Structure formats: structure tokens, C-alpha cells
């Protein structure tokens, strides 16, 4: 019989702690890297940019250092293709839920590409600070002798484990109750999942 113990997602007090949740890849032991934002070591900040805004956050105290809404500029051209005027395009505003903005920070191994994790960041727009930081998910890929590839993704927000196996043309995908991810011995997690599948 397989025991299913409750898994509580990690929460973090500061952004600094969240991005250091795993400093090294559990597979190849190489240093983990931020993939969708920029870290400034001198000012100890993280910068996120997307089509809605540019935001700079202090890693030490979760305060928003700067927050700028982005506006695209539309250019007007003459018949020859020369710019004759420019006007700011319509700004649709920041899409928030009850004054909170939900953003994700991805941290990945760039050497082996077999492990990454995502931090969910909830920003309080009214008080201009991070309201909550938690581990959203962890994904681990395992290649066995170049024949079988397995991917295990633990989504701590939905409390589900997604298991994919790519075995010589016999690909499978299953969503299961959340299963502890053994990063010291990933094969153990695969064995646990396979035994659970045999009971389903």
C-alpha cells in the first residue's frame, strides 16, 4: 500500500529566499539561473518586464523599487514610409484581481535542462509590495539510458502531480494526487508513481 502524505507548498518571507530555494540543480549539480527576469547583484534587485509593465523589486524587503506601466507608441507614416507623427496607443491598464497582480519567476538549470521550479509572486498594487511568495511548481525530467524519458511536475497550487512518460512511441500522460518529489533519488519517485498507476 502506498502512503500519501500531505505536501505543503513552501512559502517564502523574502524574494531573496525564494530564488535561492534550490541554488544547484539536483540532477547535474550546476548553478540554477533566473530565466524570465534580471537580477542586479549591486542593487540587490530583480527586474521583471512584460507587455504590461516594468517592475523592479528589492530582494531584501519585497518592496517595489519602481513600477512603470508600458505604453506602445503607434507611428503614422506618409506615402513614402517616413514617420510623420507618433501617438501613444491605448493603454489597457494592469490586469489585477482585487488589487493583486500575479506573476511567476522561473528558475532553471541551463546546463542539463532537466530541472526547473516556478515561484508564484502576488504583488499588492495598492501598497506597492509583494504580498505573498510561494513555490508554485517543480519539474524534473529523467532520461533512462537514452530510451525512456520521464517528466514529473508537481503543481503545489493545484495539489496535482503530472506524470509524462516517453517510451519508444508509447507516450503517456497522467494527472495524479500530489506525490512527494524525491530529488535525491528521482528513480524512487518514478517507481512510486508507476506502482500507483498499476492500482488505478
Which segments are poorly predicted (pLDDT under 50) over 5 or more consecutive residues?
Answer: 1-6
Structural class of the secondary elements? mainly beta
Number of helices: 2
> Radius of gyration over alpha carbons?
21 Å
Q: How far do the termini sit from each other?
A: 13 Å
Give a description of the structure:
This protein has 200 residues and is mainly beta. The protein has one domain (15-199). It is 10% helix and 46% strand. The chain contains two helices and 13 strands. A seven-stranded antiparallel beta sheet has the order 1-8-9-10-11-12-13. A four-stranded antiparallel beta sheet has the order 2-3-4-5, with no helix packed on it. The longest helix has 14 residues, at 186-199. The chain is globular, with a radius of gyration of 21 Å. The model is unreliable at 1-6 (pLDDT under 50).
Can you lay out the helices and strands and say which pair or pack?
Layout: H1 15-19, E1 32-34, E2 38-40, E3 45-49, E4 53-58, E5 64-69, E6 73-77, E7 83-88, E8 100-109, E9 115-124, E10 129-144, E11 148-155, E12 160-167, E13 172-177, H2 186-199
Antiparallel strand pairs: 1-8, 2-3, 3-4, 4-5, 6-7, 8-9, 9-10, 10-11, 11-12, 12-13
Amino acid at each position: 500500500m502506498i502512503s500519501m502524505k500531505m505536501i505543503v507548498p513552501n512559502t517564502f518571507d523574502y524574494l531573496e529566499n525564494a530564488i535561492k530555494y534550490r541554488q544547484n540543480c539536483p540532477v547535474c549539480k550546476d548553478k540554477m539561473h533566473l530565466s524570465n527576469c534580471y537580477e542586479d547583484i549591486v542593487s540587490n534587485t530583480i527586474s521583471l518586464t512584460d507587455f504590461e509593465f516594468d517592475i523592479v523589486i528589492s530582494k531584501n524587503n519585497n518592496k517595489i523599487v519602481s513600477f512603470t506601466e508600458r505604453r506602445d507608441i503607434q507611428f503614422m507614416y506618409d506615402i513614402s514610409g517616413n514617420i510623420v507623427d507618433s501617438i501613444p496607443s491605448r493603454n489597457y491598464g494592469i490586469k489585477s484581481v482585487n488589487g493583486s497582480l500575479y506573476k511567476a519567476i522561473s528558475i532553471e538549470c541551463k546546463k542539463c535542462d532537466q530541472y526547473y521550479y516556478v515561484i508564484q509572486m502576488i504583488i499588492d498594487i495598492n501598497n506597492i509590495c509583494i504580498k505573498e511568495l510561494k513555490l508554485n511548481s517543480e519539474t524534473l525530467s529523467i532520461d533512462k539510458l537514452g530510451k525512456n524519458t520521464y517528466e514529473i511536475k508537481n503543481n503545489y497550487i493545484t495539489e496535482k502531480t503530472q506524470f509524462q512518460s516517453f517510451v519508444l512511441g508509447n507516450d503517456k500522460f497522467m494527472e495524479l494526487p500530489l506525490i512527494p518529489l524525491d530529488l535525491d533519488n528521482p528513480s524512487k519517485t518514478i517507481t512510486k508513481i508507476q506502482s500507483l498507476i498499476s492500482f488505478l
